[in-house]
Amino acid sequence: MYLPLNKTPESPEQRKELIGDIIKQQEELFAQSIGYIQRLVIQYLIERGYSSDDIELNRGYEVVVSEKEKFVTSVDIVVRLQEKVLYAIKCTPASIDSWERFMLAFCRVVEPYQIPFAMVTDGREGRLIDVLTGEVKETMDIPKKEDLLRLLPSISFIPYSEEKLPKERRILYAFDAIKCCPTCNI
């Protein structure tokens, strides 16, 4: 990343442009690191027997918060078997703990049923979340495809409580707002 040191901007416009350039460079580095983590996770899934047909990248979902509010949110990787999303995976280069709540809300809201499992990972460490129980384990150990297929008949695909759903949508909406950088268009 190139930063002009000891350079005083000659105008507010030039200052704004320099700040915008710095932010864009940081966002590019962040996106590259997420792409790298995605590749690591995809390689891991392939080693566990999943095929490219089972894996979907950057899956977006439209979420309706109210009559006047809706937004599109996404997750880095979903694993789908027999027409059901079983895992939603968030790749982040830092602060994996802070994304656990996002993943709980995401898995409760985006499909007509709760996605049963979520993972947040930086590529080295991970948190595996059982969405139905809320249990979190410090691991990146996703079952092999053959084992998950055997477990599939015993997995519950139940919707989240209608009374609690609006709160989860709002939580997801708040996280989505945090992800959006207000200075991206500088």
From TrEMBL:
<feature type="domain" description="Type I restriction enzyme R protein N-terminal">
    <location>
        <begin position="40"/>
        <end position="143"/>
    </location>
</feature>
<dbReference type="Pfam" id="PF13588">
    <property type="entry name" value="HSDR_N_2"/>
</dbReference>
<dbReference type="InterPro" id="IPR029464">
    <property type="entry name" value="HSDR_N"/>
</dbReference>
<protein>
    <submittedName>
        <fullName>Type I restriction enzyme HsdR N-terminal domain-containing protein</fullName>
    </submittedName>
</protein>
